[in-house]
Amino acid sequence: MEEPLREIAVLDHGFVKLVDFMGGDMAVVQAARVSFGKGVTEPERDRKLLAFLLANRHETPFEHSVFKFHIKCPLFVARQWFRHRIASYNEISGRYATLNEEFCLPEVLRTQKAKNYRYERMAEPENSVLKGKMAAFYQAAYDLYRELLQNGVAKEHARMVLPLALYTQFYWTINARALMNFLSLRLDKHAQDEIRHYAEAIAGVFAEYMPWTFDAFKRYVVSGEKWIE
Amino acid sequence: MEEPLREIAVLDHGFVKLVDFMGGDMAVVQAARVSFGKGVTEPERDRKLLAFLLANRHETPFEHSVFKFHIKCPLFVARQWFRHRIASYNEISGRYATLNEEFCLPEVLRTQKAKNYRYERMAEPENSVLKGKMAAFYQAAYDLYRELLQNGVAKEHARMVLPLALYTQFYWTINARALMNFLSLRLDKHAQDEIRHYAEAIAGVFAEYMPWTFDAFKRYVVSGEKWIE
Amino acid sequence: MEEPLREIAVLDHGFVKLVDFMGGDMAVVQAARVSFGKGVTEPERDRKLLAFLLANRHETPFEHSVFKFHIKCPLFVARQWFRHRIASYNEISGRYATLNEEFCLPEVLRTQKAKNYRYERMAEPENSVLKGKMAAFYQAAYDLYRELLQNGVAKEHARMVLPLALYTQFYWTINARALMNFLSLRLDKHAQDEIRHYAEAIAGVFAEYMPWTFDAFKRYVVSGEKWIE
Amino acid sequence: MEEPLREIAVLDHGFVKLVDFMGGDMAVVQAARVSFGKGVTEPERDRKLLAFLLANRHETPFEHSVFKFHIKCPLFVARQWFRHRIASYNEISGRYATLNEEFCLPEVLRTQKAKNYRYERMAEPENSVLKGKMAAFYQAAYDLYRELLQNGVAKEHARMVLPLALYTQFYWTINARALMNFLSLRLDKHAQDEIRHYAEAIAGVFAEYMPWTFDAFKRYVVSGEKWIE
Fold it and tell me: Distance (Å) from the C-alpha of residue D94 to the closest C-alpha of chain B?
């Protein structure tokens, strides 16, 4: 569909592809210096300015850098993703397209005690037994979806039987400021493991295209380091 | 959970509840007149001003009126709903709560010819036969969800088998301007029938709480009537 | 123009008036508990939940509470104010209304050394001398504005001579989450003193209408206190 | 400060510079076709799809194209500009920088009858006489600004005497959907003449970088042409 600048496989059938990019670390510096009626200077000073901005919550200069991704992820991940409102989305539509038979089946299921958010890896053979039931269920779901379509049921009705494990695809355009907000929430240890894998792939792209910003983000936002003059 | 101001049943298990409201037609007039350093006058003039605003795309005065709804709808409807970004959402979480066994089963399935977006009602007995299969499938999906939970699978993993027909709930706060945008898109004949039922319920609440605005909205936005001085 | 719920004088001619409000601390709790499919419980638990949310950056439940203010402030303050994009504004228009002769003249001018952002109070008699010149200049500006209007110059052109000290008025509707963002930036010691006075007036209103939220905001956002389970 | 892709002089001292761009007509097509699980096809079909989207209010595919401008305009224009909230701004700060002595003086002043929004060109010699007074006043304003600074008054206080005719500068990043909203409002005959000049310069850049989109925008948004299948 396009030739991505970067492509990273995520989970069993998903991916993160960078398809377009605008801006970069120097665009941050340039936007910040307009406050002073000035432009970029030498690297060391510029980099320090950029770190200062992030450490002191001057976040608007980061909005002039923009990433466009092509994402493929399960529906339950997409539902978390689309909560981020300061971004642009165009997704494959189950009203217009016949959806592909691709479902997320985790390598190892996680367990959880009642009223507790600590997760453990499910032991074998339980893990394989339950995954087998899930896989069979996915097959049954897609068979019913196909049967409904073959009997003339409208796509928008037939898709109702598809489970949240189904993969979807979308374009996602987001500026670097909103992207850092996404990453700070979705790289967090409280985020669901599956979306965290996507966040890590995106963080890798971010680090490559805006290395100074990513470095300052890790220190002053993620680790909460204090700025010392 | 709360005592709604208005409550309307939608689809087989859903609802639209108005739980809070701020503003109204006079708040629109008040906000518009601040441009002139003036306030409200007599009803006839005020109502004409309000219609003029909407007919001529002066939409910001409508932002000071705010509706808070409690919505219960199927996941495939919620996914369309959450695309509207200028609004606030808090939804029940499948990571934190065990989701209820409630699925959307249409009274009459819609059919669709290939490469065509005209929908027909499915004839009997096909309709009952296919609905029977869907209902059985919903039961199987929820049984598997329960089995996974009983075997200690984390809620966030177990929910992957739940289909898009599942009902969810959320709070939705939106200003009157963004609400009119929602309504103009979701009352449209190209919108999926299920979300259109929700839009109609919401339009009824809107008409009750902002009657002048709703009337002008129907004439100048929905019907595309031209303003004549 | 309206009967405000609360009114506070700010600077020499300005004010902050609360004219409408929706929500409150319990609306935050209600929106947060929907994640668990639950509602409000007893005060102590609810208040702790609310503090937990703010301390751990779960900010969306605060969006369902909305404040509507009527603000009067100088143009140079309004220009800082309107940078906050997640809010609604309707302002008096210099194209449609003749603007009033009201200018901001600080009680004591601030001084500043070159390349330095530490401010001192200007000593007398310099302060009075320079303020006298500013007052005379404001008078000259308004005289010219009036002369241009009397000669038939369009309002939108005549206003070009009015200085940034001129007072303007606007309605401002903002949810509690965006309001906290405004306050955290504009109560800060790096904010300009004049807008900080407005932020303090607004903080007083906020504390009165959402006391639990304001208390948690001070501890976990402003003071950066860490949450301890 | 940067090497613009395009630069256009506007008014007496202003400019519009395109400094970065991402996307284009094909990016619109690509984003729209993801709904069908498809990509770009041949030009004629793609162009027709793009026009269909705009004519039928499918506006999200236009959000993946992003323009970054460097703008120089008078403060009274900037105040109208910054009302557009779905965009990113970084402006020179009168708190941090000494502002330049550049003021907008229209070639011909506009006149306006009371309670009327029809504007005429002011006749000579009145026009020259009044413009002479405005120019002298601008000089006096800047002289006082300089005097205040020389006496140690803080920049943030001294600027209070500067009139709305003063030129300012900012970076402005905006996606094509929000840009079309800006253009439809600011190219309109009810917009103030000065900002309309900026809108026309920007429309020229837009037409060059997204020719199919601009053409469809003119037909289906500006002229209100109906879509015929």
Answer: 26
